[in-house]
What does this fold into?
Amino acid sequence: MAHFIEVYAHRGFSGRFPENTMIAFEEARKMKVAGIELDVQLTKDGEVVVIHDERIDRTTNGIGYVHEFLYKQLCLFDAGSWFHSKYHTEAIPLLSEVFEWRIEKKSDITLNIELKNDQIDYPGLEEKVIRLIEEYDFSDRTIISSFNYDSLVKVRSIHPYVSIGLLFEGIDKEAVEKAKKIQAQGLHCESVYALSNEGKRAQAQGLDLRVYTVNKPEEFLQLKESGVKVIMTDVPHEIYPNLDCNR
Ligand code: G3P
Ligand code: MG
It folds into this structure.
């Protein structure tokens, strides 16, 4: 039986463009991926910004923690040159900019918003993200995930049905039960889990497996065979030639 699998661009089309920037999202959209995974943190003045690390050092020309900067300061840093000088005009996007872009492009792309609050507690992050989702009426094409389980519990207490992905590393034998407790629709897991008996148990319980980060075509084919719903990849251009998937 043909099994359709969806491809999400991990941090945007991050294999070819600077991760978590507007160009990485736009180039992913042009590749016709089903979804985009992105990471969010909070600035000093409480703006939800799209960046993977708690510090800006690796992916911008600045130094320091995201939460030490006001948004008006943070947005001046160059978030593209670390990848290639031709991307020097890229900045750290606001989550709302990504939402605006999705509307402007009339795109139905799924946005997987990963709350990066497993290292730093960002008070109010859940409320702010959900408020934005509601403001833009995006609750049907948005997934919230986090390595911080308490944060996902909070998300569910704030919003009764927004899609939640329980995010974890390796094999977590309690993942199914934890997911059920907060009515999470999916498990955001690694291949090792997806291909294990625990992964099969999760699927049998009706949970979607969304697997990160799959950059090898052979790994992709194995996952497709085992019925996972989504793979997240940095390199959609290398995965696509191998599949007949939903795009
Ligand atoms: O959300 C899946 C994946 O992005 C989790 O790891 O470190 O790439 O955010 P990381
Ligand atoms: Mg992530």
Observations:
- The first strand starts at residue 6 and ends at 10.
- The mean pLDDT is 96.
- The pocket of SN-glycerol-3-phosphate (ligand 1) is lined by residues 10, 37, 39, 52, 114, 145, 167, 188, 212, 232 (CB under 6 Å).
- The beta strands are 6-10, 35-42, 48-50, 110-115, 142-146, 163-167, 186-189, 208-211, 230-233.
